Amino acid sequence: MNRTKAQATMVSRRQFLHGAAAIAGTALVAACVPPTAAPSGAPQSSAPVISDKPLAGTTINVLAPRITFTDATQSQLAKLEEATGITAKFDVFAEKEAQQKIAVELAAGSNAYDVVWTGGNGVPQKASAGWLEPLDPFVEREDPDVLRLDDFLPPLLNSGRWDGKLYALPVFLGTQLFYYRKDIVDTPPDDFDSLMAAAQEYHNNPLAAFAIRGARGADSALWPFPIFMLGFGGSWFKDYPADMHPTYDSPEAIRAAEYWVELLSNYGMPNVASAHFDEVLIAVSEGQAAMAIEGAPLAARLFDPEQSKVHDKLGMTLVPSGPAGRFPPFSPHHWGMPASAPNKDAAWEFIKWALSEETQLQGALSTNHIAVSRASVWENPEFRQKYNYGGGETFVELFFQSAMQASELYRPPIPEWPQLGDRLSVALNEALTGQKSAEQAMLDAQEDLYQLFKDAGYYDS
Q1: Residue 358 has what DSSP assignment?
Q2: In Å, what is the CA distance from 15 to each residue of 152, 290, 376, 443?
Q3: Do 158 and 194 lie in a common domain?
Q4: Are 33 and 117 found together in one domain?
């Protein structure tokens, strides 16, 4: 089976902002939600870029997650209608529900939506299934100096490609940082050994030592776990993409699972085995954890005086490194167009507008949408001043460093990622809850996931 070969890239900050390429992709979780005949949503519209209005009177429907970029976009929809005459109606769901809804709508060939979120690495699965419309013909008819694709952060732009075609444009950059209580933790841990030692020192003194997503799910435990699996020297496959045999039974992968179980079961927040990002944010903002690994884009909540009791006591740094190096998370989010979309030209105008420098900057300044996708916005003085959490632009610089060090294979860009992420998270959860040893859980996952890839046609025999 032929698969698109990605090339891993480590980039300098200058390259990151202005031109290196690193591909990263993942996919969404499919589930059973009935497709809709027509969505209902908050009608409104969006703005700039067109002199005449050939699409005036067109209404498009957008399926979106309840993530910061949705608020940032919806808050400006009147500008789209003013500039183009297009009305955009949004159906907004909680993130996991949105994932399920989008997968079902696209698989059914529904014409209910013109624009969909393809995020959390959703392009490979959806593009390979023929669910997304290639955007190259739309891009080719634009003035490149106006569209400015080279202004998108390179890893994000390339993560919207599959098999040589562009299927989605990036709206959001996901990564994670290490947060800690400056009034409790003297020196933030920089590697796995010092993290375990700090957890032992600070647990129940008087707080839980560590908060992290431990629940089942590709976007729960399998969002931070690769920090440890890759950091201990494990890998997803023997030799991606030449040899796609899984390697979850390797000594390094098993060691990562053992470390994960020891850290979380002994020093984790209460109910860590069922913790999603909301529970982690609550634990940190309520002052219930001394340390945490959580999303960088969620820092706005943690440093908001109205939402966090410890906003002035938090420090941040990069996630810790292991024997094989430091592997910060990387997850791209995009706007894409269903192949079955009834209003493709209007959908393209929305995507252009929503991802323009002006719209992204104003959205970032008027809401807490930090994780924008254009380099020009990241370099904007107003943006950097607003998001200088920690003083001296510490947060912005750490966000950049995390993105620069992110691996293209942090989560493999393959159509089977949803099943892989879900099944491996189940194995980790079984170990964390004591149903299996960490070693047995990984051995069982190896057998299960080998069969997944065999059934998908990756092996000749």
Answers
A1: H
A2: 12, 35, 13, 40
A3: no
A4: yes
Same domain, 132 and 62: yes
Distance CA 41, CA 48 (A): 22
* H runs (alpha helix) in 203-302: 225-231, 251-267, 277-285, 299-302
- Could you tell me the two tokens for 34? 């009935």
* Structural domain for 263, as ranges: 176-329+416-455
Whose structure tokens read 């706005």?
300
Residue with tokens 């820092």, as numbered in its chain: 299
**C-alpha atoms less than 13 angstroms from C-alpha of 350 in its C-beta half-sphere:** 36
The answer to whether residue 8 sits within a structural domain is no
375-422: per-residue pLDDT in tens?
Answer: 999 999 999 999 988 776 789 989 988 987 887 789 999 999 999 999
Counting the structural domains of the chain, the total is: 2
Q: Which of 30-39, 163-172, 277-286 has the lowest mean pLDDT?
A: 30-39
Q: What's the rounded Cα separation, in Å, for the pair 362 and 198? A: 40
**Domain co-membership, 396 together with 345:** yes
Is 360 inside a domain boundary? yes
pLDDT in tens, 132-174: 999 999 999 999 999 999 999 888 898 999 999 999 999 999 9
DSSP H or E stretch at residue 431? helix 417-432
pLDDT at residue 239 tops 90? yes
Give me the CATH number covering residue 195: 3.40.190.10
